[in-house]
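Section: protein folds

Sequence with per-residue tokens
===
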Amino acid sequence: MNLNVEIEGEGFPILCLHGHPGLGGSMSVFTNHLSQKYLTIAPDLRGYGKSRFRENFYMRDHLSDLQKLLDRYRLDRCLLLGWSLGGILALELVISDPQRFSGLILIASAARPRSSHPKVSWQDLLYTGIGGIVNYIKPGWQWNIDNFGRRSLFRHLLYQQTPEAYQYLATEGVKAYLGTSAAANKALSQALREGYNRLDALTEIDLPSLILAGARDRHITAAFSYETAQKLRNCQWKCYPNTAHLFPWEIPTQVLSDIDRWLDNHPEAVTAETSL
């Protein structure tokens, strides 16, 4: 299928892959910044956002969609940046065709993703619903954060619980949640039940890589991100204290600064001749 795509900037291409729930616009914290120097390509994956798909599908279908997307824009080589599920898909793309990619940036992701998320209670769901609705109406309201946000499932996504992070939840998070189809939920659930593990396939990857993790991440724990970094030959790993799965929304300035520094130190990841 032809994926809906958001394209910004010009220069060396960076394919930005969102997580679950999500859509291409969920990557704005990265694309708004990186598009000042590079070409950013942020698709809605199959079953997400405007890439409508109501029938059942498998996780491997994302890979064929993305390969066709690269062919559509005649991208023979690009940098990959993936957040959560997007990082897993980025790894799969590199494993299947390493010559097509110049580097790899993984955000809160792992080749053997495992969670430490506690059991969800009815109170969690109630406070998440109330807190989410109020935050959508009045983004970043401290009273709502203190009375509902800190008692909701948002506490496992955002450790610092700042008004700035809740602004992202209101502008990007709600659209991501509403834009995620039942088929996408089913495809991910099936992959998780099968116990996804691609660690053994990483040892042959020699691309410059950067893995960033949140120390308090309960969805894909920092320990499993570190495990992935240890398997990659040419990888830098950094873990941010007092942050959770959505840490790019908690500390965006620091995260973007670290990505910029890594790109400056690895010009080979963004200086190939191929561009759109």
